[in-house]
Every structure is written in structure tokens, then in C-alpha cells.
């Protein structure tokens, strides 16, 4: 079916208006029901598939994310019709979520050097809160005494159980194992500022599990990888956290967290005498886990995490990213193939955004591994806090 622009554009505008309406608070929706045209709520998913293909092909990631979040039938329709479109959207380069000192936040397309025309749904109480995490397209804030997981594109909020540990008062960093909207159980790990306690939660449980006070965990960056929790400190130390579940037969043995120090000769040799590192974990598009150490003098070292068949962990030094480029940040790190975005990203390059809180100026730098060159990018200095944001496409399977 062929459709002219004059026919297709009004249909697309009406659909986007419907999505805007669905995003309104329930109370607001009820007040608008009397004046809302009936066709605005019609089941447009029953339109001919070739027409829907044309419509969905016009969607940007923000609109597509809102579409598939409406209900299961719309999600299944999008999944059935547009596999190629999903692949295109899921391969989008990460956006930069910029937050100003005045609580204003917006998405920035670093590849094109321009803001993204997408309205974020962040309730007022969270606009001036420090961001604790940015995982799987979700923002995580600490609203004492609990964590709030927010989808800024749809406005969906999940509140986790409150903390009940006296050493856990100022949450600094939070990571999750998967997208909480996928339906499967996901895990959450939180570290507390200036505290030697780490907290772990499996979604669905009502109580957090806390570690013993044995480490300055707030100096570590953690990652969920292949049913493991790995951490790297500012001193370049690597450890593995193990959550040991309580036995149903023995109620006297509660769930606990143990740790295992991982020694690596190559890590000690390369980073010897290099204090106060910034460490990051990032998985490349091949599923390999990399650990990146950023030195204060503006140099980067990259290591690949190797897990053998016996479960033992070792590291190897990486001198070539194989055409990948890495996006590093306090709250989220990701990777893409530079060849997928010719003219926008340089291969074997690290893009790092520094976040120091809403009262300090953030920074941005670009490091090329081939030439060992470092440069600052002035386009991204107009922010106090920045995080890489990758929208989650919550598609269900039929």
C-alpha cells in the first residue's frame, strides 16, 4: 500500500497524541474524558499491517518506547510487525542525560551534537535529587529510606523496600541485573557514601541483605556478569561478591554476602604505583566484559575479564578494542561498534562523562587508544551531572 504524506502524517500525529494522553496522570485522564474524542481511544492496532508498518517506521526511540509500554496487545503488535525497526532502535547509540544545577534535565544526542526532542517524565520531587543509578533505561533515586526506580520515558515508578541498616543512610551508587519491567526477577546492588557496607536485594523480597563492615565499598564500581557480582576499587583491586541464600531447613542461617579477592599479576604489574583510579566495567557487543582504569593523568588501561570453565577469574591487557568505542560514566557504561555510525564515532575510542553532583561542574573527555591522545569536548560542559542513557525496549514474546 502506498500512502501520500498528507494522509500518513495526520494518522501519525493522532497516534502520538494518544500516547501523550496515556502518559497523563490517571486523575488528569478522568477529567479529560468528557472532551476526549472517541476516535482518539480507538483500537488503532487493528489497522492494516502495511499501514502500521509505515507509521511505526516513522517513530523515534522515545515514541517507540512509549508505544510498546501501553499494553501487551500493542507490544505484541509492534513485536510482530517491525522486527527490523526494533533492531534499528535497540542499536541506537547511547544518549547523554544532562542535568543542570537548577534541576533541569534533557537528553542530548552526542553523535549529532544536539538535544533530543523528547519530553522526560520526571516528577518534581526527583528533579533535584542526586542520581544513584542509570541502568537498563531506568533512573534510580534515593528517597530516604528507599530507592525509587523510574522510567523517564513512560513515567512508570517502582519503589523498592526501605533500608533498615543504620550504616546505610546516603546511597551513592546502584546497579540492577536486568530491566525490572521484563517480568523476571532482577537483583539490585547498592553502595553507600562513606560507608563500608553494601546492600543486595532480589526483587520480590521485602528485606535487603547487608555485607559485613570489611571494605570501603563506596570506592568500588560493581557489575552483574554471568551470575556473578564483580567489583573494582580505586586502587585497582578486583573482588567477587557472593550472595549465599539462607537454607529453608535452617532458619538460623540468614542470607549473607561473602567476598573473594581476585589476584592478577598483569593487573598489579600495569597499575603498580597508580593511585586514585576511576574504574569502570563495560560489556562489548560480543558479550565480553572489560574493566577500564582511568588514571588521574588522563591515561586509560583496559583489561578483559576471563572466566574459565572452573569459574576462576583472570585478566588480560587489551591494546585494541576491535573497532568498538566505549561510553563510560559513573552510573552506566556501554559499548557500540563505531562502524555502525560512520562519521559520528571513532573506533578504539573512549568517551567519558564525569559526574560530580548537582553542585559541581561535570566534564567530558575523549581518549583514542590507537594514538593515546586525549581531548576535552566543550559541547558537553554545560551540565552539572551527566549519565549515559540507553532506552529499554520492553518487548514481550508472543
Automatic annotation (TrEMBL):
Residues 47-87 form the F-box domain. Pfam families: Beta-prop_KIB1-4 (PF03478), F-box (PF00646). InterPro entries: F-box-like_dom_sf (IPR036047), F-box_BR-signaling (IPR050942), F-box_dom (IPR001810), KIB1-4_b-propeller (IPR005174). SUPFAM superfamilies: F-box domain (SSF81383). This is F-box domain-containing protein.
